[in-house]
Model the fold of this input.
Amino acid sequence: MLLPESRPSQGRDVFCNHCQAPLTPGAQFCDRCGGPVAPAPLPPPAYAVQPYGQPQYGQPPYGQPNYPPQGYGPSQPQLPYATWADRVLGYIIDQVMVIVAMIGIYVVAGGLLASFASMGSDAAGGLCCLLIILFPVATLAVGFYNRVYLVSLRGYSIGQGIMKLRVISPEGRNLSMGTAFVRLLAQLGLSLIPILGLLDLLFPLWDDKRQTLHDKAVGCFVIKDPLAL
Done:
């Protein structure tokens, strides 16, 4: 039940909020106590204005999965594309992870090689061949977790997270796992040819959206994100 002072003034009696006496429509002072008539409360706004960079009502929280704030888009100049230096540092951090993983694998494999050496040259030779193909396989496996699974899940690898970077699609969303995998394969394929690998690494220096060639292969962008990691 509405209190007298909170009743709307349209189509109903209005009462003084001091002495509760009925008021004459449009009166500014109460006829009984002479007190001023409080203005009718304003209706609530139809919508609430959100702070800059926050999603509108009904949209996912910031960074999930529509990352860019309102007005951002890959064709707009205010999109904070990552700098070349930040991307290189993030890549180096990711590669250090691969090296650490490989050291652990080779330590274990070295122990097995020493054990198999006593069994005969055939067993040792087979393990040596296994060690040759182990590096590219392990690189792909670590890359799949770090640069496919994590990028599709949260938008950045471990190195990119440390450098506050995020990989987004043209719609501003996280990449799907399939798209992130194609991006990884494109980078690995370009790295097999030294000239193309170097061109891929340096391409953001003159590209207007600071994309590498493997970014362009899937149409993604790498941006600066202070909320990463």
The CA atoms of residues 18 and 147 lie 68 Å apart.
